[in-house]
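In response to the reviewer comment on reproducibility (Comment 2.3), we provide here a single inverse folding case reported in full, input and output, so that an independent group could reproduce the run without further information from us. The C-alpha cells appear first.
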C-alpha cells in the first residue's frame, strides 16, 4: 500500500497505508476465530472480572509505552542539536537494528507467549522456567549472530540501501557509525522482549515498566555524558575526514547510540535478575553453555565475513548498485554458511529447539 499510495498522496499515503494495514491485520484473523467457534456479542460490563483484570494490567502497559516514547523524544531532541544529518542517520541506524529484532525476538515472543501464559495460569512453574529458558536460548542463538553481521556489514549495507541522491558518503559514514553502537545492544533488546513476556504471563506488567523507567533515565544521563566525551576525544567515522569534515562534528551521534545500548543492556540484566528471583533458577548452566557456543560460532562467522569483505571489496565496483549487492549478498551467504557450520561443529542444541518453535 505504501509503495502504491506514497507516490500519489505523499505523506498522507503512508498514513493511510498504515491504517489499512492495521485493519487487514485484524481482518485476516477473523475467519480463523470463527472456525474455532468464537461468537462475539458486544457488551459493556465494567464489573466483569475479566474487564477489571485487563484494566489493572493495562495501566502499567500504557505507562511503559509512554516511557518508550519519552526515550525516543529525548534522543530526537539531542540528535537535532548535533551536526546536520545526525537525526536522520540515528533513525536509519536504529531502524536497521530493529529489523532483526522484529524478525527474531518479536516472532519468538509471539509464538511462545500463549504457552507461557497457560503454564503460569496453571502454576506449572517448572515448565514455565523451561519454556522461558528455551525461548531465551533460541533468541540469543539468532540475535547474537545478527548483531555480529550488522557490525561487520554495516558500511556496505548502508551503502546498498541508502547511498544515492542526497544521501552522500558522509551520510553513509554517519549512519554506519551509529549502527556500530546500536548493533552491540541487539542481544539485550531481544532478551528484554522475551523476559518481558514472562512477566506478562505472570500478570505482572508493573515490573517491566519500572525497569524501563530506570533504563530511560540512565539513557538520558549517559547520552549527555557520551556526547561530551565523544566530542572531547574527537571520536567519529574515519570516512568523514576525507570529505573535509572533522570527526567530532559528526561523531557525536555515536555517543547517543552507545548510551542507548548500555541502558538497554542494564534493562535486560535487571529483568533477568528479577525474573530469576520470581521463578528461581532459569537453568543457568545450560543457558551459559548455550551462550558460550553462540559467541564462539558468531566470532567464527564474523571473521569469515570480514575476510570475504577484504577479498571481495577490491574486486567489485562499489560505485554501482550491482557491486554493492554482490558484496552484501555474498557477505550474508558466507556468514550464514560459517555460522551454520560452526554451530554444527559445536553440536548446538538450539537448532532442534528452533525447529520446534518454528512449528508453532
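Designed residues, in position order:
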Amino acid at each position: 500500500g505504501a509503495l502504491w499510495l506514497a507516490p500519489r498522496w505523499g505523506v498522507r499515503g503512508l498514513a493511510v497505508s498504515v491504517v489499512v494495514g492495521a485493519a487487514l491485520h485484524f481482518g485476516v484473523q477473523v475467519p480463523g476465530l470463527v472456525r474455532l467457534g468464537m461468537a462475539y456479542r458486544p457488551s459493556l460490563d465494567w464489573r466483569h472480572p475479566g474487564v477489571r483484570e485487563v484494566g489493572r494490567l493495562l495501566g502499567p502497559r500504557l505507562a511503559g509505552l509512554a516511557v518508550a516514547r519519552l526515550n525516543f523524544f529525548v534522543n530526537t531532541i539531542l540528535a537535532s542539536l548535533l551536526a546536520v544529518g545526525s537525526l536522520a542517520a540515528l533513525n536509519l541506524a536504529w531502524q536497521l537494528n530493529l529489523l532483526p529484532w522484529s524478525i527474531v525476538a518479536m516472532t519468538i515472543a509471539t509464538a511462545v507467549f500463549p504457552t507461557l501464559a497457560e503454564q503460569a495460569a496453571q502454576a506449572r512453574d517448572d515448565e514455565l522456567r523451561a519454556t522461558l529458558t528455551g525461548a531465551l536460548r533460541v533468541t540469543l542463538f539468532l540475535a547474537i549472530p545478527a548483531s555480529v553481521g550488522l557490525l561487520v556489514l554495516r558500511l556496505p549495507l548502508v551503502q546498498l540501501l541508502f547511498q544515492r541522491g542526497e544521501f552522500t558518503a558522509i551520510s553513509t559514514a554517519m549512519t554506519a557509525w551509529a549502527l556500530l553502537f546500536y548493533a552491540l545492544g541487539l542481544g539485550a533488546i531481544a532478551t528484554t522482549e522475551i523476559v518481558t513476556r514472562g512477566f506478562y504471563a505472570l500478570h505482572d506488567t508493573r515490573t517491566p515498566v519500572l525497569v524501563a523507567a530506570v533504563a530511560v533515565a540512565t539513557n538520558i544521563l549517559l547520552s549527555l555524558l557520551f556526547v561530551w566525551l565523544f566530542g572531547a576525544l574527537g571520536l567519529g567515522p574515519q570516512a568523514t575526514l576525507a570529505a573535509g569534515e572533522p570527526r567530532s562534528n559528526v561523531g557525536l551521534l555515536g555517543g547517543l547510540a552507545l548510551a542507548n545500548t548500555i541502558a538497554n543492556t542494564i534493562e535486560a540484566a535487571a529483568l533477568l535478575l528479577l525474573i530469576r528471583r520470581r521463578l528461581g533458577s532459569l537453568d543457568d548452566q545450560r543457558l551459559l553453555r548455550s551462550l558460550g557456543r553462540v559467541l564462539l560460532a558468531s566470532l567464527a562467522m564474523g571473521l569469515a565475513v570480514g575476510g570475504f569483505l577484504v577479498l571481495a571489496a577490491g574486486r567489485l565496483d562499489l560505485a554501482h548498485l550491482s557491486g554493492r549487492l554482490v558484496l552484501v549478498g555474498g557477505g550474508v551467504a558466507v556468514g550464514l554458511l560459517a555460522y551454520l557450520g560452526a554451530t554444527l561443529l559445536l553440536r548446538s542444541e538450539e537448532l532442534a529447539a528452533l525447529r520446534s518453535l518454528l512449528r508453532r
